[in-house]
Specification:
By secondary structure, this protein is of the alpha+beta class. The protein is built from 31 helices and 15 strands. InterPro entries: ACT-like_dom_sf, ACT_dom, HD/PDEase_dom, HD_domain, NT_sf, PII_UdlTrfase/GS_AdlTrfase, UTase/UR.
Length: about 800
């Protein structure tokens, strides 16, 4: 080859052209390798021509794409000319002979001339320069000069990372803010966006600093082939983007997507978008793990060095918090505990703490699949995960990137990274579904079955990605999934109907005349005249719209759907009032004998137990009993409260937060102490809550109280829909007792993070609106509430 840069350009263009018999078109990876060889050959030849030899005291060092051996067709050529403190005129003459041919050939050149100390100082003073020079590589000339620079920069990077880490993270987050997410942008920035190529380089920089592995958390067995495969895909797409555009370009334009997808044999623009989403989300998860691991690996400074090692705080059976992450307890046995995956994820979503990458890897390797139908414990943990508000998004993303979510929900593969087909949707189908779950959690107290609302939100688009109508396909899939989860047949039927009809209310309200009785009758018939389905679909329609994108849910749409729902309710038959559970005969016999009896027997699930308490029906008994159970880390999943004669008969289905249940004799003794005033149950609960949570956890949804009249004067049915908290039943019973409301019977159900508690209360002669308002105020004082919304001007500031 001639040493003129015009020959370099012709050779590059010949590589880019291809397609002729003598010059077949190179694939993206082969093209990058050929370009690296081409530029290295030209620089080596040109260097020898201008006197840059091994004994010359000069060297050419490549950074950027050529340094990383990732040369793209129109990337800048980033070169550093190193010299051993030579005569400036001599160095300038050599530099001109090297740079000018490249400039004359219109090759973009980013160049500098440095001595070794100068290069090290620039890297020390400028974080961006340091990051770039970590990829530096010797090309031609005296290798000792390049080796000293590379070794010196890497040594300084390792020794100085503690002081530069905060600046590094701030710069990364600012870049993400400017460029957005590669996975969810219609025209993503492949280089600078979150999940793009710059993030791969960031991971390499953290590895060079010896703070983390270069590819943390994800190996080749992860969905999409892991981080190495994601890196190659991003490079391939950017390579073809250069080739198609005929210039350097970082942002993938919509008009180029089909051509690039075809060149890479991926498919059309939708297939390309799905490939990019998978790659970018894999990179994004890896960067989260890398930054977190690096932050924890940094040496402690000042007084922090003197602090004790972080304690391990129990979160659930086999799950603890350690060093700001959710990890497995020392005695956890993933091989024998298929539900452990969901308990780890639920704890992460509720606390907002990330799951340790080591924990996820261990679960991925060791945890067996859940048997069908799922045990009730596993279903409840899934509901806790889905009811955690925005916390569910990061938890599901981490499970999905490590292959665990696909094990729990194999049908997810069809919608994973599936791009939307219309511009209104801002998320991929799988992310939209999880966003819908997050929005639905804030609406959970509007429905009597928050568990079905959460599952319907998760599965409403599960039928997409197929040729057939996604509502019909999704309904069939929801039936199979509901049976696998262990739902009752009637609940499976409702879940399937929710998926089948999740577009019914928005479509009818916005495209038909809701004043027409036939329109209302059409909806009522479609929902089998079932008010529960109507209630669930109303909440799901709002959550689905909110999760679609800005402006999809507004006052106009909300008003139309709300009016349609109101008219449908008028036509539908009213719901029957709740009734008390029948009391088994053997418990009635035991109650007739008097005294205090406490029995603890195994329940249906592996970790559930049935606690039966029979005692004289005195004021405060229910509150004290529920409080004692909570103090012994027993979470009430359901309860039936009733009585016969002078005795109360209360049955609780409970699950220990961790470990085994306490002895029934101990519970009996504690209940008697509480009744005698020797144990202040509520004060002890407050202390336990502060110790466990640190601060009170804000709810996702506003609590809701519903009243209904009974046939008996003074007796009312009170239904509370709210989020759970430690000892909530104890606090509610204490409020009712303190207000003089006699609880005749009660049915308590916990669905994931939410409770639907029904109390039949006797208010005597004072049962009017003022009395109810007093009770409501007292109840709301002990129920979790969402954080107050800031006024618009405060949010803008």
């Amino acid at each position: 080859m001639s040493h003129g840069a015009a020959d370099l350009v012709r050779a590059r263009d010949q590589l880019l052209g291809g397609g002729a018999p003598r010059h077949p078109r190179l694939d993206a990876e082969s093209l990058r390798a050929a370009l690296v060889d081409l530029y290295e050959l030209w620089l080596t030849s040109k260097g020898a021509e201008v006197g840059i030899t091994p004994d010359s005291g000069l060297a050419i060092m490549a950074v950027g794409g050529l340094g990383r051996r990732e040369m793209l067709p129109y990337s800048d050529l980033d070169l550093v000319l190193l010299h051993e403190d030579m005569d400036p005129k001599r160095v300038a003459e050599i530099a001109d002979r090297l740079w000018y041919p490249l400039w004359d050939a219109h090759i973009k050149l980013d160049h500098s001339v440095r001595t070794v100390p100068h290069a090290l100082k620039v890297a020390s003073d400028d974080l961006v320069a340091a990051l770039g020079m970590l990829d530096a590589r010797h090309i031609v000339g005296n290798p000792d000069l390049s080796d000293r620079v590379v070794a010196g920069i890497r040594k300084d990077w390792r020794s100085g990372i503690r002081g530069r880490f905060d600046e590094l993270v701030a710069g990364v987050r600012a870049r993400w803010e400017r460029s957005g997410q590669v996975a969810h942008r219609s025209e993503p920035d492949l280089k600078n966006g979150r999940g793009g190529l710059r993030d791969i380089q960031l991971l390499d920089a953290l590895a060079i600093a010896q703070l983390t592995d270069a590819m943390p958390g994800l190996g080749p067995d992860a969905p999409g082939g892991g981080l190495a495969q994601a890196h190659r895909r991003l490079l391939d797409v950017r390579t073809e983007l250069h080739r198609v555009a005929g210039r350097a370009r970082d942002q993938l334009r919509a008009q180029d997507a089909d051509e690039i997808g075809a060149a890479l044999r991926i498919g059309d623009r939708f297939d390309l978008a799905r490939t990019l989403s998978d790659a970018a989300r894999t990179v994004g998860y890896s960067v989260d793990v890398g930054l977190r691991t690096a932050g924890n690996a940094l040496p402690r400074r000042g007084l922090a060095r003197l602090r004790r090692m972080p304690v391990r705080r129990p979160l659930d059976e086999g799950v603890v918090e350690h060093a700001g992450e959710v990890v497995l307890a020392r005695d956890a046995r993933p091989q024998r505990d298929p539900g452990l995956v969901l308990r780890v994820a639920a704890a992460s979503a509720q606390t907002g703490l990330p799951m340790s990458a080591t924990t996820l890897n261990r679960l991925s390797e060791d945890a067996p699949e859940l048997r069908e139908p799922w045990p009730k414990d596993a279903l409840n943990d899934l509901l806790v995960l889905l009811g955690a508000g925005r916390g569910v998004i990061d938890a599901v993303e981490a499970l999905d990137r490590t292959g665990l979510w696909g094990r729990l929900l194999p049908e997810w593969g069809a919608v994973r990274d599936l791009p939307p087909r219309d511009a209104l949707h801002v998320w991929t189908v799988d992310r939209h579904s999880v966003e819908t779950v997050a929005y639905a959690s804030a609406l959970s107290t509007r429905v009597a079955r928050p568990d079905l609302l959460a599952l319907g939100a998760l599965l409403h688009d599960i039928g997409k990605g197929r040729v057939e109508d996604h509502c019909t396909v999704g309904a069939d899939l929801a039936t199979h999934i509901g049976r696998r989860l262990g739902l009752w047949p009637s609940d499976v039927e409702i879940l399937s109907a929710m998926v089948r009809h999740h577009l019914l209310l928005p479509d009818v309200a916005t495209h038909r005349d809701i004043d027409d009785p036939d329109t209302v009758r059409y909806v009522v018939d479609a929902l089998d005249n079932d008010p529960r389905r109507l209630e669930l679909l109303h909440a799901l329609a709002e959550a689905d719209s909110l999760a679609t994108g800005p402006g999809v849910w507004g006052e106009w749409k909300a008003t139309l759907i709300g009016e349609l729902v109101r008219r449908c309710r008028t036509v539908m038959a009213g719901e029957t009032l709740p009734e008390p559970e029948p009391i088994p005969e053997e418990l009635l016999v035991r109650a007739a004998a008097g005294g205090v009896h406490v029995e603890l027997t195994p329940g249906e699930g592996k970790y559930t137990h049935i606690a039966t308490v029979i005692a004289p029906d005195t004021p405060g008994l229910l509150s004290n009993t529920a409080g004692v159970l909570a103090l012994h880390s027993l979470r009430v999943l359901s309860a039936s409260v009733g009585g016969a004669g002078e005795s109360a008969i209360n049955t609780f289905v409970v699950t220990p937060t961790f470990g085994g249940p306490p002895d029934a004799g101990l519970l009996r003794q504690e209940i008697k102490r509480a009744a005698a005033g020797e144990l202040d149950v509520r004060a002890a609960l407050d202390a336990r809550e502060r110790e466990t949570l640190g601060v009170a956890r804000r709810a996702q949804a506003e609590p809701r109280l519903l009243w209904a009249e009974t046939a008996i004067p003074g007796q009312l049915i009170l239904q509370l829909r709210a989020e759970d908290r430690i000892g909530l039943l104890c606090r509610l019973a204490a409020v009712l007792a303190g207000a003089g409301a006699d609880v005749r019977w009660a049915k308590v159900v916990t669905m994931g993070s939410f409770v639907v508690d029904v109390f039949c209360v006797d208010l005597g002669r004072r049962s009017g609106p003022d009395r109810r308002a007093e009770l409501e105020s007292a109840i709301l004082a002990v129920v979790p509430r969402p954080a107050p919304r800031k006024p618009p001007e405060a949010e803008q500031n």
